[in-house]
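Appendix C: a fully annotated inverse folding record. The material below is reproduced so that readers can follow the format used throughout the book. The structure is listed first as tokens, followed by the designed sequence.
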């Protein structure tokens, strides 16, 4: 079954890492991914697949200040028009829309609070081929000190709708595209000084078992607990890249 990617929804994620071999070993062992190296002409970039379907990308870290980090790409059918809306809404263009051979067009931005995100206009590479299954992208989350500004910005740029939920005195905002929940916005307690950022969550069959396995493989656990729809954990990989796992 081929996924249908709605414009404005997460379409791709990739990892920029300081140690490709180490990251390949870690994520392959944790999620059962297989790695495909695209060769020197791709600048060290490659793909992770799960059951033969595209799951994520991986390449060398390109920003020394950020180090190892995951990037979230939102789909667009017109990169130039989306870049224009981003600038008009207070975001910044970091890498203007740029064709990647015949694969598609990427661009990199920051939102008004400074969180990095990317866009992808598909060519021959459509994006992830598996979602909301074990080992697949299942959710994205924005940590920001300005949830109100984020709701306005991403609504204007990607037509995301939002719904606030009270989690025992803390407000969590669910973002949806075309009626489908795709991610959340949160200002975590005690997060003063934490840079705003987007983070991917990958599905697992058992959050506790997968978190324990990640720690065995060299990850550091930042939190683990229940949420209204299941159980989750947030970790950093051995190179420092932050990601989440969850069950539905």
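Designed amino acids, in order:
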């Amino acid at each position: 079954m081929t996924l249908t990617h709605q414009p404005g929804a997460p379409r791709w994620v990739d990892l920029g890492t300081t140690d490709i071999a180490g990251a390949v070993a870690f994520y392959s062992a944790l999620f059962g991914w297989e790695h495909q190296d695209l060769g020197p002409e791709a600048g060290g970039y490659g793909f992770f697949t799960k059951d033969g379907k595209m799951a994520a990308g991986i390449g060398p870290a390109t920003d020394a200040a950020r180090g190892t980090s995951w990037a979230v790409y939102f789909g667009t059918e017109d990169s130039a028009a989306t870049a224009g809306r981003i600038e008009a809404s207070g975001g910044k263009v970091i890498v203007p829309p740029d064709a990647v051979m015949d694969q598609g067009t990427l661009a990199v931005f920051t939102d008004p609070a400074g969180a990095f995100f990317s866009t992808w206009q598909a060519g021959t590479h459509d994006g992830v081929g598996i979602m909301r299954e074990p080992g697949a992208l299942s959710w994205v989350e924005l940590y920001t000190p300005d949830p109100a500004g984020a709701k306005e910005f991403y609504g204007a740029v990607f037509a995301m709708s939002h719904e606030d939920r009270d989690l025992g005195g803390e407000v969590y905002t669910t973002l949806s595209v075309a009626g489908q929940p795709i991610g959340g916005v949160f200002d975590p307690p005690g997060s003063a000084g934490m840079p705003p950022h987007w983070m991917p969550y990958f599905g697992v069959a058992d959050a506790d078992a997968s978190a324990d396995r990640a720690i065995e493989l060299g990850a550091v656990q930042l939190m683990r607990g229940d949420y209204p729809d299941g159980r989750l954990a947030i970790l950093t990989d051995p190179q420092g890249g932050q990601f989440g796992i969850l069950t539905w």
